[in-house]
Amino acid sequence: MAKHFIEDDWRIPIQKMDVGDRVTTKSRTITRTDVELCAIMGGDYAPQFLSDRAAKESGWETQLLPGVCTLNIAYGLLIQAGYLSDIMAYMGTDNLRFHAPVYPGDSIRMETELTSKKQTSKGWICEYDWSVRNQAGVAVATGHNI
Questions:
Q1: 85 vs 78: CA distance, rounded Å
Q2: Domains in the chain: how many in total?
Q3: 77 alpha-carbon distance from chain centroid
Q4: How far is CA 11 from CA 24, 25, 86, 125, 127, in A?
Q5: Which CATH number covers residue 116?
Q6: For all residues of the chain together, what is the average pLDDT?
């Protein structure tokens, strides 16, 4: 029977889980500094990432976090939770979609479900569906990782 682990209750890496098991990480609140550092470090100087005024002129509520940074922070939540502690290699993401913006003050968490698991001579190949959700439970990004 599949289990649902909440981060405070577990520290089991993906390789020790069963297909169908789900994980929900703790949330992290995004700051304006996160937005600006991510944009600057990545070299993405698009105005909507660096200016409230420019973001509003483009139809956004306020400055927003670059999508790739949303993904990076979400993966960090999985790593901090121990879910990816035994990973030897990241093999890719399929069906990556960004559904909604992430603004400073939003809190995001990662939710996953292990969809397959195969042992090889070098270790396990695990696949999982994931979604990044905000404080309202809205999926801001989804995908499938190998």
A1: 9
A2: 1
A3: 7
A4: 12, 11, 12, 19, 18
A5: 3.10.129.10
A6: 90
CA dihedral 48, 60, 136, 143 (to 10 degrees): -60
In sequence order, the β-bridge partners of residue 113 are 22, 129
Q: Which domain holds residue 92?
A: 4-31+74-145
pTM of the model: 0.88
Are the C-beta atoms of residues 131 and 77 closer than 8 Å to each other? no
More confident residue, 120 or 144: 144
Residue type, 139: A
Determine, yes or no, domain membership for 79: yes
Q: How confident is the model over 56-97, as pLDDT tens digits? A: 999 999 999 999 999 999 999 998 888 887 777 888 899 999
CA dist., res. 140 & res. 61, Å (int):
15
